[in-house]
Amino acid sequence: MLAGLIILATLAGWEALVRAGMVDALLLPAPSDIAASLWNDGDVLGPDLAVTLQEVLVGLLAAVAVGAALGVAMHLSGVVRRALRPLVIGSQAVPVPVIAPLLILVLGFGLAPKVLLVALVCFFPVTINLYDGLRRVDPDARKLLRSFDASRWQAFRLLEAPAALPAAFTGLKVAAAVSVIGAVFAEWSGSDAGLGHALLTANGQLETARAFAATFLLFLLAVGLYGVFALLERRVVRWR
């Protein structure tokens, strides 16, 4: 309730500033103009939203598959952990704006480079959070399973994997929130569709309201994906 009131007050103040001429509408359009652009430009922004959503969903799926495999492998094997952990951490030191044009040059302007960039942005929180969750299992519980002669696979299946679920979902929610960033940078580097492309086009045409509308859709997309994983966490991690 309080958050809603703060948002309404902010929008009302924003609208008043623009209507009073204190801010140039070309630089900062009024919320009502942004809402009008969402309605009037729906035939343009709608397909772009669908393109970005496809890139984000496929990239997230790839990041979850790769990140989960890496997290489990690093947990189960000391050799894999020593070999891959520095590479996983170092992968985040590469700036996205630098690598995005290179991927476009190598893979072309299709779906593949966008998906790969989203996956590169998202796999790190998935991998590290899952790995940390698997490592932070109660040691007394491990000893109890060993006292019952549980195998390594049984310990993983009955104890470590369920105990790591909260941390794994934290990684998924972080990945969902940042996935849009990878998609937008990829579209900025080379694309003829998507909300990132719509942003560039709107800015070039001085259609500021449409640019803000596209940004608002990106915001909704990130929040929506985060909410989906938060709801899924509530259904799966019932003991929390």
Describe it for me?
With 240 residues, this protein is mainly α. It has ten helices and no strands. The protein is elongated.
Concise synopsis of the structure shown:
With 240 residues, the protein is an all-alpha fold.
Largest beta-sheet details: none
Rg, please? 22 Å
Query: For this entry, what is the oligomeric state of its chains?
Result: single chain
Q: Beta-strand percentage?
A: under 5%
- Mean pLDDT score: 84
The helix content, as a percent range, equals over 70%
Segments where pLDDT lies below 50 for 5+ residues? none
Span from first to last CA?
25 Å
Q: How many β-strand runs?
A: 0
| Shape category | elongated
Query: Which class do the helix and strand fractions yield?
Result: mainly alpha
Helices and strands in order:
Blueprint: H1 2-19, H2 31-40, H3 42-76, H4 78-90, H5 96-107, H6 111-135, H7 139-147, H8 152-189, H9 195-204, H10 208-236
Helix pairs in contact: 2-10, 3-4, 3-6, 3-8, 3-9, 5-6, 5-8, 6-8, 8-9, 8-10, 9-10
